[in-house]
Amino acid sequence: MPFKTLRLAAPILRALAEEGYETPTPIQAKAIPPALEGKDLLGCAQTGTGKTAAFALPIIQRLKLAGELGDAAHAPRRAAPGRPHALILAPTRELALQIDESLRTYGRHAGVRTTVIFGGVGQNPQVKALQAGVDIVVATPGRLLDLIQQRHCSLADVHVLVLDEADRMLDMGFIKPIRQIAAMVPAKRQTMLFSATMPKEIRHLADALLRDPVYVEVTPVASAAPKIEQCVIHVAR
Ligand code: AMP
User: Fold this and answer.
1) Res 227: pLDDT
2) Which one, of 122, 186, 197, lies nearest residue 155 by Cα?
């Protein structure tokens, strides 16, 4: 099944073709159609499955390209300074940078403006980037809260919220900041939560943040092929 069948707009299809992507991965095939409709999503998937594009492509399309598919009611608006339209939360600086890079790649023909926010570095360049006006912010929770408290950023215009690697964010002690941040995002929004594992705490968080979510799950790409028999043989040194 080619990407075309997923009702993605031409500027996105062009970027995917340039990246050499031919067919959607299983998580993309399952997640993109409901995400494009604006539905909430609970995704059980690990890194390496293509989950970044699974949430990034629908965000780019709904934020920037809704008008291209004849949906004039959703003509894109320009983001005001410090007031992004989508927020993606990630546990680490490395993941946040990777997601930002992917958004730039997939959104390069869609005029998407993004920025990335994380702690451990000076905040001034991040504040400047926010003030220039960005559609999408990718952030680690702690620094984002700092910037919100200093009024450099407002979540009042956010209508798509993503939590990526939610289990890792919980492990790292981000549960309270996540709940604080989510409470600042308007209730009328799309929320997507991705996690490699689904322990009780993640289900509780999902219950609190998601509304009637579509559940999508894929087997990790790193899992063993079912037809390969495996055994362990202990040998002498
Ligand atoms: P992710 O799980 O989002 O970190 O993606 C894993 C890797 O797969 C990244 O290097 C992507 O560039 C790549 N990728 C994602 N989707 C596709 C696709 N449909 N076809 C080929 N490569 C892909």
Assistant:
1) 83
2) 186
Q: In the prediction, which pLDDT does 226 show? A: 74
Closest ligand 1 atom to the C-alpha of 25? 19
Task: Determine the distance from the C-alpha atom of residue 184 to the mean position of all C-alpha atoms in its chain, rounded to a whole number.
Answer: 18
Give ligand 1 pocket residues (Cβ under 6 A). 21, 24-25, 28, 47-53
The number of the ligand 1 atom at minimal distance from the alpha carbon of 51 is 3
Strand 136-139's sheet: what is its strand order? 114-117, 136-139, 86-89, 160-163, 190-195, 41-44, 214-217
List pLDDT tens digits, range 12-33.
Answer: 999 999 999 999 999 999 999 9
Out of 16, 21, 27, 98, mutate this one to test ligand 1's pocket (max ligand atoms within 8 Å of CB): namely: 21
The sign of the dihedral angle between the CA atoms of 207, 188, 130, 111 is positive
Our measurement of the distance from residue 54's CA atom to the centroid of its chain's CA atoms, rounded to an integer in Å, reads 8
Compute how many other C-beta atoms are within 10 angstroms of the C-beta atom of residue 42: 23
90 CA from centroid of ligand 1 (Å): 17
- Separation between Cα atoms, residue 72 and residue 108, nearest integer Å: 22
Residue nearest to atom 22 of ligand 1 (CA): 21
Q: Check pLDDT > 60 for residue 6.
A: yes
Contact 216, 31 (CB under 8 A): yes
Task: Return left, alpha or beta for 55; rule: phi > 0 is left, psi -120 to 50 is alpha, else beta.
Answer: alpha
pLDDT band at 73 (very low <50, low <70, confident <90, very high): low
